[in-house]
Amino acid sequence: MSESTLEQLCKIYTELNTEDINILKKVESTLNIYADLSNANMYIDCKMNENDHAIVVAEAFPSTSDSVYEKSVVGKFVFESFEPGVFYSYRGGKKSLISQAVTQDGRIVEQSVVPIKNGSHQIIGVLIQEKEMSQQSLVRSEQQKYSFGQETLGTMLGDDMGKIPIISSLLMETLLLTDNKNNLIYANPVGVKFITEMSQTDEIQHKNLVELLPFLKQVYDSKEDVFVFDMTLDRKNLVIKKVRLRNKEQHGETLLIIQDITELRTKEKELMMKSYLIQEVHHRVKNNLQTVASLLRLQMRKGSPEESKAYFEDTLNRIYSISSVYELILANEDADDDDVNIIELTRKVCSTLVLNELHKNISLIIQSNGNRILTSSRKAVSIALIINELVQNSLKHAFPEDILGEIIVEFHSNKDFLELHIFDNGVGMKKPRTSLGLEIVHNLVVNDLNGEFQYLPEDVGTHAVIAFPVSPEVVIYYEKENIDS
């Protein structure tokens, strides 16, 4: 059996699977009934997979009245700037009601939009009902919205095209109106400046706009009644929106809205360049750390005294801990984001330490307690070093050789504080001894994290706790109910 138009469009332009498409086909089969029942046009729109637009995949018209559109719109692209209700329903999963929406060919309609969901409650499309508003309905609608000042409001919005409307004069966008022969019949002040600069002439009134600005020819040649076009011209980046107006008072008039986004594009390029530079810095820091680690390993092999090798290993572990932070940042797909997932960082640091102690039978357990914790790269370096020192202490001193052991790293949180618990089931210690490692931990916790560090008494093993406040640099996402908080 041949595929329907809806199936073909969905397979070409969307990421919907066969099950989702079948749901849409069932909805499509009822469109004619609902169109007759409501005396309105019915449509199904779906989001496209390669951009932020939507596409009309099905339509139905009431048999008792004329269609809102002069021709079929199936296969037409839908832009958010013209039909915000469609995208509102897609994002929020809620019904959208717009009393005065603009159709694909410039008509004023009442529009209702409801999301269509699959069995997993995912939005796979939207169902749209459109009913054209008569002039009397428009007047009544406006009178219901505004209780006074109708004439003043009309002047502001520019009902009289012989005068320059106040609102359009304040717009930063170019606003142009041409007749059915493409002659310019209105331009706001920004538009006048734009045309005179681009055409190098002051004689623009009632002149053919395509002759004044030849680059607009492809916009006017497009048969689409609603058209959005990006263009780069003379180092200018422009977004051109065209709406062809069709009603009894306006015969083939075309409204153009031209937005100069050159400055925005320049800022985007600057931000992109900044992101590349930051990424390059991260690469160089990581590479430099690896170079230092390589030099230390080389020194260890070239006859360093046996008693000094332990100090080299401690230093190497600290370097690896810092390097882990930059490896996670560089693995992030978002080049602008230098936040580090502390849970992933802990796994990375601890796994390196355990691998370096292959002769010991140690089980390492990391529990997030349902948290996903992100922090800035600055704090991440401090946390990596703290975890390195405390886990390394357990590996060195808690378990004599050939004894099975367990080290647990846990994260507990509430809205104000984050706690890091590291405990083992080793031989324990009566009193913490002063060492370089514990000095590093204490200084980092107090000075960098503004927190507290202590050992808690345990019957078996040792239990270290670091507590520090949640801040804009430390963000906690609760993936499930945190019963350990």
Can you describe this structure?
α11 (262-301) packs antiparallel against α12 (309-331), α12 runs antiparallel to α14 (377-397) and α14 packs antiparallel against α15. The chain is 40% helix and 26% strand. The chain has 485 residues and is of the alpha+beta class. Mean pLDDT is 79; it is low at 135-164 and 481-485. It has helices at 5-13, 18-28, 31-38, 84-92, 135-145, 150-157, 166-170, 189-199, 209-212, 217-221, 262-301, 309-331, 342-355, 377-397, 436-448; strands at residues 41-47, 54-60, 77-78, 96-102, 108-117, 123-132, 174-178, 184-187, 226-233, 236-246, 251-260, 340-341, 362-367, 371-375, 405-413, 417-424, 452-456, 463-469, 474-478. A hairpin with a 2-residue loop joins β9 (226-233) and β10 (236-246). It folds into 4 domains: 5-137, Beta-Lactamase (2-Layer Sandwich); 163-260, Beta-Lactamase (2-Layer Sandwich); 263-324; 339-485, Heat Shock Protein 90 (2-Layer Sandwich), CATH 3.30.565. The strands form 4 sheets. A 6-stranded antiparallel beta sheet has the order 3-2-1-6-5-4, sandwiched between helices. The chain has a 5-stranded antiparallel beta sheet with strand order 8-7-11-10-9. Strands 13-15-16-18-17 form a 5-stranded mixed beta sheet. It catalyses: ATP + protein L-histidine = ADP + protein N-phospho-L-histidine. Residues 280-472 form the Histidine kinase domain. Its EC number is 2.7.13.3. It is an enzyme of class 2 (transferase). One of its GO terms (molecular function) is ATP binding.
